[in-house]
Amino acid sequence: MTGHEHVRVAVIGSGFGGLGAAVRLRRAGVTDFVVLERRDSVGGTWRDNSYPGCACDVPSHLYSFSFAPNPEWPRNFSGQEHIRAYLERVADTFGLRPHLRFGAEVTEARWDFETLRWEVETTDGTLTADMLVSATGPLSDPKIPDIPGLDGFTGKVFHSARWDHDYDLRDKRVAMIGTGASAIQIVPAIQPVVGRLTVFQRTPPWVMPRMDREISDFERRLHAKVPSTRALRRRMLWLIRELQVGAFTKHPARMGLVEKLAKRHMTKVVKDPELRAKLTPDYRIGCKRILLSNTYYPALVQPNVDVVASGLKEVRGNTLVASDGTETEVDAVIFGTGFHVTDMPIAHRIRGVDGTTLAESWKDGMEALRGSTATGFPNFMTIIGPNTGLGNSSMILIIEAQLNYMIDYLRQLGTLTTAGAGRAALDARPEAVRSWNDRLQERMKRTVWTTGGCDSWYLDAQGRNTTVWPGTTGEFHRVTRQVDLTEYEVLRAGARPAGGTAGADEPVAEATR
């Protein structure tokens, strides 16, 4: 970008959320927008995560846009390279390249109540926008724990999402820190080549079989020539997961049968009772994300693999010390310790009506109206915002629902501007946000994420689940189909907002039951 640029919509991030927003904007006739991307290509988490074995744990035909079906998926669960290639094709097919601004990391965005615009500072220049959409996603900024002595380690250290492909792991003594979704893919991929692999496991995950297979040429040809077969496959995958939601959100006791299947999956491979005890979780399945793998347990029983059933406590030189006192000397440390989910860094860069950052507004926990908008941040939306995550289905379904909300938001703004006295903006009423989130937290009390007996990344520092949606994706589509203006204060150019409070006689919509 050069000089001053103004656009109707500025989108931050070019992963599924950002590219999806761009497609929907163009299809709605909005071409005055930019997609701000800090790196040099699209893909988001599927660009950043390129570690060995990286693949999706949601079936490919469900993990893709409904408006951009792909009959050529090679496997039921496709790998990172195929998903990234799909996103590149989306950018080309829908003519998004002219809207993409690479190397344009947002350093600060400030709301100007005089002009009802966002002033956006990036590493590539400054622009203003009528509406700002954050599609950075919760899995974009890696989290490495503060381990005493780590800065004195003389070997190689990197996070799974920043894989160093120039570093040769062959015959090295490697430590894998963490046993989450990335780690259970990395461990089987590197185990055959490393000299010794030590897995530091703070909490064992529940692991189910991965029903993966190659999609045949016949299936791919059929899906290409008869689109209804592809649509039917997608709908069946969706329906199966919709029917599972009740066990997660209302009847966690029903997960007992699934636990038996997971234990059987483990005992078929892990014969050593001591190792089996280490790998058996003591919490209800589903409390943490259920992981899928046919190769994780076989890798752990190999003679060059050790499992330390304790988290990493400190580093002394090149020796890693676990919380239980176990010491392990290694050449390389790989962190599979997740991301900044409940404390997203982008929130520190967004400043609302009174100069307060979104992070400061969320200091007691993230919350947003319908997972999308926050009080004091007019004409601002988050894609994959608070309480929009899923424990068992495809996030693309949530993203598309929020894109519907975004398009209706813009439509409402256009109507208000045409019918009223000049430019308009919408600010979520605090009563609406509070009502919505109180209802969500009440529903959350009986879910497996709350009652399951685990400490997961779904929970924030206060122990509240501010990440997961406690319902079906169908329900989420219904509650985000359109913007309810009774949940918003209408702002006019030049008039300082009254703080987003509703009048005593103005109704505030209640959160969905």
Automatic annotation (TrEMBL):
It comes from the Bacteria. InterPro entries: FAD-bind_Monooxygenase_sf, FAD/NAD-bd_sf, Flavin_mOase-like. GO terms for molecular function: flavin adenine dinucleotide binding; N,N-dimethylaniline monooxygenase activity; NADP binding. Signal peptide: none annotated. PANTHER family: FAD_NAD(P)-BINDING DOMAIN-CONTAINING PROTEIN-RELATED, L-ORNITHINE N(5)-MONOOXYGENASE-RELATED. Belongs to the FAD-binding monooxygenase family. This is NAD(P)-binding protein.
